[in-house]
Write a structure and sequence with these properties.
about 20% helix, alpha+beta, 7 strands, about 100 residues, two-stranded antiparallel sheet
């Protein structure tokens, strides 16, 4: 490979490497039910923080600005959050 081609290849490789998102701690929202079998089915929703799934670390509520359940029509219902924990809530799932 010529010097200019290797420089182009190195530049492209660097661009691709920089475009790939870095793995970092991230906030995740989980639900125990992913599909609604029957209207009225209950699901537990909770928060997780870190690298490991489903739970890596507990979350301090002071770091959470809002914790809401958003309905398809856009209405928001506040979910309860503890001091430090997974902030679990039981929610009823409905078909729209």
């Amino acid at each position: 490979m010529s010097h200019s081609l290797s420089r182009i290849a190195a530049t492209l490789l660097l661009a691709v490497a920089l475009a790939v998102p870095a793995v970092a701690h991230e906030l995740k929202v989980f639900a125990s039910q992913q599909a609604i079998a029957e209207p009225g089915t209950k699901s537990t929703v909770y928060l997780s923080w870190g690298h490991r799934v489903p739970v890596d670390d507990l979350i301090d509520v002071a770091s959470v600005e809002r914790y809401d359940l958003i309905a398809p029509d856009g209405t928001a219902s506040a979910l309860k959050a503890a001091d430090v924990g997974l902030h679990t809530n039981s929610v009823e799932l409905k078909r729209v």
